[in-house]
Design a protein that fits this description.
This protein has 132 residues and is mainly β. The chain has one domain (12-129): OB fold (Dihydrolipoamide Acetyltransferase, E2P), CATH 2.40.50.840. 4% of the residues lie in helices and 42% in strands. The chain has one helix at residues 12-16; strands at residues 23-28, 34-35, 50-55, 58-67, 79-86, 93-99, 111-119, 122-129. The strands form 2 sheets. The protein has a 5-stranded mixed β-barrel. A 3-stranded antiparallel β-sheet has the order 2-1-3. It starts with 11 loop residues before the first helix and ends with a strand. The mean pLDDT is 95. The structure holds zinc ion. Residues 28, 30-31, 33, 42, 44-45, 47 line the site of zinc ion.
Length: 132
């Protein structure tokens, strides 16, 4: 169980794209930049001409930390909290979890691929290491 985001018209595509296996990032049609976290106005050019775009879901671990603290009884520790830089959305970093491997196998620069964890109507984007 995790605290789930509140869905609204601006962030809904990001949190529900996983239903179709899509990682969707808000993109500005005027200045061609990606915007994350989702917001109603482009942070680069103040345009409101924003649309979600599905990206590949490939990325690289930019930085990470291993959490050993059990915040609540249902939580499995340790786990990895990472910042992932998306390959095809320059400047976008997702704070996420790395799953599917031992925490000792995670390193900065590792290539990762998105997967989704469904909780209620939200699909949390989390990442797995890409086998080399
Ligand atoms: Zn813009």
């Amino acid at each position: 169980m995790r605290a789930l985001p509140r869905l609204d018209s601006v962030n809904r595509d990001f949190w529900t794209g996983g239903e179709l296996g899509e990682l969707r990032i808000l993109h500005c049609a005027d200045c061609d930049q990606f915007i994350h976290p989702p917001r109603p106005v482009c942070r680069h050019c103040l345009s409101e001409n924003l649309k979600s775009k599905a990206v590949s879901g490939n990325g690289v671990i930019d930085t990470f930390t291993i959490n050993h603290q059990q915040w609540h009884p249902q939580m499995d520790v340790p786990f990895v909290i990472a910042r992932v830089a998306l390959d095809d959305a320059p400047g976008v970093y997702l704070t996420t979890n790395i799953v599917g491997c031992d925490v000792s196998e995670v390193d900065i620069g590792d290539q990762v691929q998105v997967t989704f964890l469904q909780q209620d109507d939200v699909f949390l984007p989390i990442f797995e290491k890409v086998a080399k």
